[in-house]
Amino acid sequence: MTELNCSVKNCYYNKNSKCCKGGIHVGGTDATITEATYCEDFREKKDAMTAKAEHCDCGPERKADIKCDAVRCTFNDNCKCHAKEITIEGNNATHQSQTECGSFTCNC
To answer: pTM for the whole thing?
Structure first.
């Protein structure tokens, strides 16, 4: 499983730059560049949601199951990410299309 870091500060699942969701889905089937990937599970954090998100459990050694549609990524094996560590990027995102998999590497 992959260590999942997140720089999307306003994502509901972000806690101390780690993703507290058990697993995510990276979209971008035809991606050949990082900007064409995105986190399908991004959910904008609203003030009322903040308290709940602060209680999620994501210790420093937490690993995540990552489904990945970016078939041209070198870390993609049967639609699963096999990178040791990835980072979802997109600070100030308000929609999933404003996020991206910062670890995407095209094998094209």
So the answer is: 0.86
